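User: Show me a protein chain along with its predicted structure.
Assistant: Here is one chain, sequence first, then structure tokens.
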Amino acid sequence: MQYFPAAIQELADRFARLPGIGGKTAQRLAFHVLEMPLEDAQGFADAILAAKSQIHTCPMCHDLTDRDLCPICSDEMRDQSQICVVAEPRDVIAMERSREYRGVYHVLHGVISPLNHVTQDDIKIRELLQRVASGRVREVIMATNPDTEGEATAMYISRLLRPMEIRVTRLAYGVPVGSQLEYADEVTLSRALEGRQEI
């Protein structure tokens, strides 16, 4: 039995396809859109269409941009000899929030995941190797997530880069600020010890 008009149900179904949105949240969002003034709803729809039509990947780093080159790749103040490899565009935002990194990025658009049928050919590894082969790169920082797929991807890429005689590093992982040692697991503590620094 259909409880809502077909248009509302279709809108809720569309929202439910978004990651992290369940059925009830999708219905709330659909009703919220219906309560919007028409110009706000039109602006919302226009913003979605504009993002889909204007945003593309940077030909150098494969981050999302609306320009020929993304702002980071075109910034002459950034260290072009240092590439931080991340899995997704949102990881660039996370790294930039730290305000510590002054190099450039390479976005893989995924990680190697046999269970999800994602191979090395499905992500931007070949493009990374081409950038490094240009001869201007002196260090590649692997900043994929510290999970099974992220670690496997980092190890695979580091093996490919080894013959190129550049420095390949991995982000240090450890105990988060504000947490307590008694709650940290063994792997986290091991990583924290490996990545320790002199003070």
